Amino acid sequence: MAGSSSDNVAATRGPLVAIGGAEDKTSELEVLTRVFTLAPEGEEEITLIATASGEPEEVLPVYQAAFDRLGADRVHALDIRERQDAANARNVRLVQTSGCIFFTGGDQLRLTNVLGGSPMLGAIRERLDAGAVVAGTSAGAMALTATMIYDGAAADALHKGAVKMTAGLGLVDGLIIDSHFLERGRFTRLMEVGATNPEHLGVGLGEDAAVIVHANGTLEAVGPGHVIIIDSRGMASSNVAELSMGEPVAVENMVMHALISGHGFDVGARRYLVPDALRDYLADTP
Asked: pLDDT for 17-56, tens place per residue?
């Protein structure tokens, strides 16, 4: 049914954008352009948060230049490294005036450790609920969800316990996001996640690819790369509950979809959306 919202992805008023990493920041800016245009009309201030990065002094100027080029009114580059920085009143005010909040890549545990339970994270949630766009790339994308992957080598995945998960920033529920998905061969990571959490939808983001989580919970692929969907809800069987740690996992009947730009996915109906169907869904979004 066009416009139906997901039954297990908590919708918000504003869109979320998860980017797979290594997005173009100097040429066509296809993915970053879409992030910028999703900001509410008249709210064209951008806040960049480089908490996840170990080299914010190198990362922040690159994104600042990209969003300046796109026409942002102001770009606030925040080097938030400690929890007291996430409670700083000036930093929180900058988030509260921004139509777009953007998390850079790096280490998702650093991001959740510094921002979790902070006034800044509260302000980000308020802005999202008010219609602002919140985006993240690489580790910043993986941390957007309520539950996130934080470790697990692709070569060891599909062995019980090989993929480590913990609480994310909690901006959307029902999804597990993995980045650099095709380039680093991470299919088995989301397969193990699906075996242990079949209600959650796995979203694997290729580099220079993004997925928009729209206000009604519909997913839309953006950019020249692929968005891979791993759907385990119809899984017929798995041995994971009977295994000891480190033993190989068997899974029957997982479903995979490969989305390209302009294609989408209805999470509630578990339905692939070709461009015409996606346009109908988005046209019916309140």
From this structure: 999 999 999 999 999 999 999 999 999 999 999 999 999 9
Could you tell me the end-to-end alpha-carbon distance of the chain, in angstroms, rounded to an integer? 15
CA distances for 84 relative to 77, 89, 91, 123, angstroms: 17, 10, 10, 15
Rounded alpha-carbon distances, angstroms, from residue 225 to 59, 181, 243: 22, 10, 36
User: Is residue 8 over pLDDT 70?
Assistant: no
- At 135, list the tokens: 């985006």
Give residues with Cβ within 8 angstroms of 272, minimum separation 6: 229, 257, 259, 263, 264, 265
- Per-residue pLDDT of 195-245, as tens digits, reads 999 999 999 999 999 999 998 889 999 999 999 999 999 999 999 999 999
User: Which domains, ranges and CATH numbers included, belong to the chain?
Assistant: 16-280 (3.40.50.880)
User: 């490969």: which residue's tokens?
Assistant: 258
C-alpha distance from residue 21 to each of 209, 247, 270 (Å): 8, 31, 26
CA distances from residue 151 to 114, 148, 237 in whole angstroms, order as listed: 18, 9, 25
CA-to-CA separations, 285 to 211, 228, 254, in angstroms, rounded: 17, 24, 29
199: left (phi over 0), alpha (psi -120 to 50) or beta: alpha
